[in-house]
C-alpha cells in the first residue's frame, strides 16, 4: 500500500492516521513533540523539527503524498518537500491561512464579508487603526494564534497601550467587534480532480475562546446563511487550488455571514462527522489527497452534537462511556491542563 506523510503530531493527525489505516494506507508522522498522540495511531514516527533537510528528504523518499494537521508549519520545509513529493493541500493554502491579513484580503476579493480590520505593525499604527475602526475591537497577532491565544479585546480606545503590550508588540490586525447571533463553520473538501463537497454547518459555541460544542442541524439563524457561506468557501478552495479539507469560520449576522478565519485542514468543529456523517472529515481528507472519489457528507441522524472535553472535563469519561448512544474519544494525552483539549464526545440521535 501507499504511505501518507503527516506533518504535526496532535489529535488531528491522530484521527487522520486512523482514517487512513481503515482505507489501507500506511502513515508516517513527523513532529517535534516528545510525546506525539498522532504517533500512537500512525504506522511510524520521526521525532524531529521540520527544518532538517536530511529528515525531510527521508520522509519524501518513502511517502507517496504529504499532508499536515496544523497550519503553523513553516513554509520553507513544505516547499522543500513539494519539490520531491506532492504536498496536499499545497503551499498556497498555508501561505494565505497562516496570516490573518492575507486570509481576510483573499476572502474579501472573492466576495466575502469580513469585519472591518487594519494591519498594525507599530504602536502608531495601532492608534490610527483605533481612530478608524473604534472600540469595542479585537487586536489579534497576525500569525500563530489559536484557541483565542494571541488576542486581546479593547473595550475602549484608552486600552490601546495595554493591548499592544499584551500581544507582545508583534505584528497584528485590529478587528472591529462583530455583533452576531451564532457562530458556524463550513467544512469543505476538494478532491484531486477539483470535485467539491461540504458538510452541513454546525452551530459552534465557544467558551473562553475555545470551541466547547458543535450542534446539528444548525438553527434557522445559521441555516439561512448556509448557501452563501458554502458557495464562498467553495470559491476559496478553488482559488487556492486546495486539495483536502478546508474549514472556514463564520459569524451569523443580520447582514449575512461574516467570514472570520480559515484553517487549511481538518477542524475541531468537524469532529462530529466521525459518527454523525456518512463519511468523516478525516476520511474525506484522505480520499482527497490520495485522489479517491469523495464520500457522502450527509448526516447519519436527525440530531448530532459534539462536546469537547477540555482540561479535567475528561475525568467524566467513566460516566460518558456508559451513556447510551454516546461515542467517547480520548486523545491519549498525558497531563490534563486547563484549556487543553483532552477528548470529545459525540451524540447522534436517530429518528
Ligand atoms: P481557533 O482556535 O478557532 O483557531 P483563534 O485563536 O484563531 O481560534 P478566532 O477564531 O479569530 O481565534 O477568535 C476566537 C473567538 O473569538 C471566535 O470564535 C469568536 O467567538 C470571538 N471573536 C473573534 N473575532 C471576533 C470579532 N471580530 N467580533 C466578535 N467576536 C470575535
Ligand atoms: Mg484560528
Ligand atoms: Mg477561530
TrEMBL record:
GO terms for molecular function: 5-(carboxyamino)imidazole ribonucleotide synthase activity; ATP binding; metal ion binding; phosphoribosylaminoimidazole carboxylase activity. Pathway: Purine metabolism; IMP biosynthesis via de novo pathway; 5-amino-1-(5-phospho-D-ribosyl)imidazole-4-carboxylate from 5-amino-1-(5-phospho-D-ribosyl)imidazole (N5-CAIR route): step 1/2. InterPro entries: ATP-grasp (IPR011761), ATP-grasp_carboxylate-amine (IPR003135), ATP_grasp_subdomain_1 (IPR013815), PreATP-grasp_dom_sf (IPR016185), PurK (IPR005875), PurK_C (IPR040686), PurT/PurK_preATP-grasp (IPR054350), Rudment_hybrid_motif (IPR011054). GO terms for cellular component: cytosol. ATP binds at residues 100, 140, 145-151, 175-178, 183, 206, 260-261. Pfam families: ATP-grasp, PurK_C, RS_preATP-grasp-like. Keywords: ATP-binding, Ligase, Nucleotide-binding, Purine biosynthesis. Residues 104-290 form the ATP-grasp domain. Its EC number is 6.3.4.18. GO terms for biological process: 'de novo' IMP biosynthetic process. It catalyses: 5-amino-1-(5-phospho-beta-D-ribosyl)imidazole + hydrogencarbonate + ATP = 5-carboxyamino-1-(5-phospho-D-ribosyl)imidazole + ADP + phosphate + 2 H(+). It is an enzyme of class 6 (ligase). Homodimer. Belongs to the PurK/PurT family. Catalyzes the ATP-dependent conversion of 5-aminoimidazole ribonucleotide (AIR) and HCO(3)(-) to N5-carboxyaminoimidazole ribonucleotide (N5-CAIR). This is N5-carboxyaminoimidazole ribonucleotide synthase. It comes from Sphingomonas pokkalii.
